[in-house]
Amino acid sequence: MKKVSLADISKELGVSKTLVSFVMNGRAKEKRINDEVAEKVLAKAKELGYKADYLARAMRTGKSQTIGLVMADISNTFFSKLARSIENEAAEHGYNVIFGSSDENHRKSGKLIDVFKDKRVDGLIICPTIGDITHIKKLNKERYPYVLVDRYFNEVSSNHVVVDNYNGSFKIVEDQIQMGRKRIAFVNFNVELINMTERFNGYIDALKSYGYKYDSSIVKNVSFKNIEKETYLAMKELMKITPKIDTIYFSNNRLAFLGIKYLFENNTINFKKLKLASFDNYEFMHLLQVPIKFGVQPIEELGKSAVDSIMKQINEESGGVEHVKLPLDISFLN
């Protein structure tokens, strides 16, 4: 079957191929093409089954109008919502987004970056994992447009958009202390990711600022690979510690979910004595009859800022390396 071309669309509508090209490339408004005409072009393209040849367009114009997005774990609602925010914002710039999940594996992340570059994407938005520093250094050397989101590396100069993990964590722990909680346990990932490190540092410094001593016995670290098994083991150990803890603070929503699940399954939660806190949340937490307080990450703003950063680089409007740090919304603490 013959592939539908821009010429086929222009012939069907009796308009120039150039006009059709402008519409299909998202430049109708820029070229002052009437909205009604643009809609007719798009409708005819859909009717004929037109599919853009992004590689050919990239060769011809130098731009593919696409962004490659590497997410750490698309199964986590934080990352899926972030991907949606980035997709929506990119569309406002006339860009499409193609994405993949690294599953917190730097080898898979590297392969995705190479695939996207082979597809001639105009820029990359990357949520890096441990080991990705080599890939980022290579992008810097190649001067390839990219921006890191949610995480970054202190050792490498890069455009990045993140949440203020340190202060967000500090305020959550401070809130527990001001409510009279004295034994605040912390469940975190035992990884070297900067966001998790900053949340841990916020936890420690909040304790110190109120004269509490750091107790390593009530801090539990689990791995991504065996997250459910290790979180359950951590919870089991925390429940046996004496003197008893009065708050468990989870560094992310996935750990909080598994921790709450363990407490319900083992009937070990005492609403009067044990309080829960989480750096971020799942929507269902609003419905739980459980004393949990949590922050809400500004996911939509993260996506918008990431796209804004990459578009500046693509359009060569960037004035240098840009660092964006957004505050955690703690007004939603339950």
UniProtKB/TrEMBL annotation:
Record-linked InterPro entries:
HTH_LacI, Lambda_DNA-bd_dom_sf, Peripla_BP/Lac1_sug-bd_dom, Peripla_BP_I
Record's keyword terms, sorted: DNA-binding, Transcription, Transcription regulation
What SUPFAM superfamilies does the record point to?
A: lambda repressor-like DNA-binding domains, Periplasmic binding protein-like I
The protein's GO terms of the molecular function aspect are: DNA-binding transcription factor activity; transcription cis-regulatory region binding
- Keyword Transcription applies: yes
Show where the HTH lacI-type domain sits. Answer: 4-61
**Coiled-coil stretches noted in the UniProt entry, renumbered to this chain:** none
- Name this polypeptide is given: Transcriptional regulator, LacI family
What is the organism of origin for this protein?
Salegentibacter echinorum
